[in-house]
Amino acid sequence: MPGGWIPVAVFAVLVTAHPGCGGKSPVDETASEGEEQSTEVLRSEKARKTSLSASDVKLDELVRGNSAFAFDLYGTLRTQDGNLFYSPHSISVALAMMYAGARGETAGQIEEVLRFQLPADQLHPAFNVLDLALSSRGENSGGQDAGKFRLNIANAIWGQKGYAFLPHFLDTLAENYGAGMRAVDFVENPEASRAAINDWVAERTEDRIQDLIPQGLIDGLTRLVLANAIYFDAAWHLPFDENRTASEPFHLPSGDRVNVPMMRQTEAFSYALHEPTQAQAVELLYAGEEASMIILLPARDKYDPFENALSAELVSEISKLMRPVRLRLSVPSFEIESEFRLADTLDGMGMPDAFDPESADFSGMAETRELYLSAVVHKAFVKVDERGTEAGAATGGTIGVTSLPPAFTADRPFVFLIRDTATGAILFVGRVMDPRQ
After folding, report:
1. C-alpha radius of gyration, the chain, whole number
2. Range list of H helices, 288-353
3. Burial of 210 (0-12, 13-18, 19+ CB in 10 A)
């Protein structure tokens, strides 16, 4: 199995109608080249806008808002026990596609919760530029032995065959998300529709995510499913030597100690000690240096205060303190699989109207007011091990080695995130409370 990190996540939004909905689709075409040829696609005649660049949009503002949402969501999800892993980027993209059809107070609530600061005519092009930039990462990388780096992001929409989705909505999806709407028959065959969606998810995630949509979640009143899948598979820029991995103690939140496999190396890494919280941070680059992982390690017995204070602003503040330091690094290997139903979470964060059949306004998708969000599901998986390929010398070669380097030992609960180095976009966020789980 390729190594370094293997994070993968899928997020889907299900839109349901009141009984008695109908209508005829304004566009009904067969799949174009590259699409499933047996599936009809409701497709705008608009082509995806690929000529825009970061200078044409307010990309920094989009990334700042997305980062703020990432940790707003963390503040809600952290109340659950144990390890945690999710992709705020996947969630933001899928909800942005859904937001394209929202109007009125429903749209306003989504803007506030998702931290969308840009007007819609600027927001969707900014997402487009970000998505195209991320999709270009790793284009020049080779296979695993040459320094593997893969970042695949895919969007898809499934709509009820014959339903009257508005052309402007389809235009927005086509121009900014590269997505045509696959026509399925939720009314007559919801199980076949569910199977088609789950097959798409499995294919885009190398079979890591199975059965995203559980049985019973799609029924004859489902009209639309929007999904985003993100698959990331990268080798370390500075790989760990498996021969140096050893069983060492990890301090659980309960105070108990357990022995876990601890990966070790001594190299130069970007490092910071944040004096106000006494938390340490270290950044590990992936092959090609286009993405990195940051580990945030709270001081012993101060995990809860650090987690209470965790925010995009705090992460930015810590990141700015990072400097090259030669470290004795010890990090546990682990796997995390998380699954969420986020309707209640997003409702509680401030967007209740989207889930209320009487209040939801998705009249930007269809002319009627019969659509509302019935379910929001998210699955994510990450595997961490020593594997990776050497890709150049360690940085910070001028740092002296006459004394024993300082240690960064992740032997207690910590938070981690994976981000794009060029844009700062946060792709994944997680925490490790017990590496054995």
Report:
1. 22
2. 303-309, 312-320, 343-349
3. exposed
Q: Two tokens at 48?
A: 């995806």
Cα angle 131, 137, 138 (rounded to 5 degrees) comes to: 150
Place of tokens 């309960």: 254
DSSP designation for 14: E
Give the H/E segment covering residue 8. Answer: strand 8-17
Q: For 23, how many CA atoms within 13 A lie in the half-sphere containing its CB?
A: 18
What is the rounded end-to-end Cα distance, in angstroms, of the chain?
20
pLDDT tens digit at each of 437 positions of the chain: 344 456 777 878 888 886 644 433 333 333 333 334 345 665 667 888 988 888 889 999 999 999 999 999 999 999 999 999 999 999 999 999 999 999 999 999 999 999 999 999 999 999 999 999 998 887 655 433 445 787 888 888 888 888 888 999 999 998 999 877 888 899 999 999 999 988 988 888 888 888 888 888 888 989 988 888 888 888 888 889 899 999 999 999 999 999 999 999 999 999 999 999 999 999 999 888 899 999 999 999 899 999 999 999 999 999 999 999 999 999 999 888 888 889 999 999 999 999 998 999 999 998 888 898 988 888 888 888 775 322 211 111 112 233 446 789 999 999 999 999 999 999 999 999 999 87
Q: Directed axis angle between helix 104-114 and helix 59-77, to 10°?
A: 80
Tokens of 324: 């090259």
Those residues whose C-beta lies under 8 Å from the C-beta of residue 58, and which sit 6 or more positions away, are 118, 122, 126
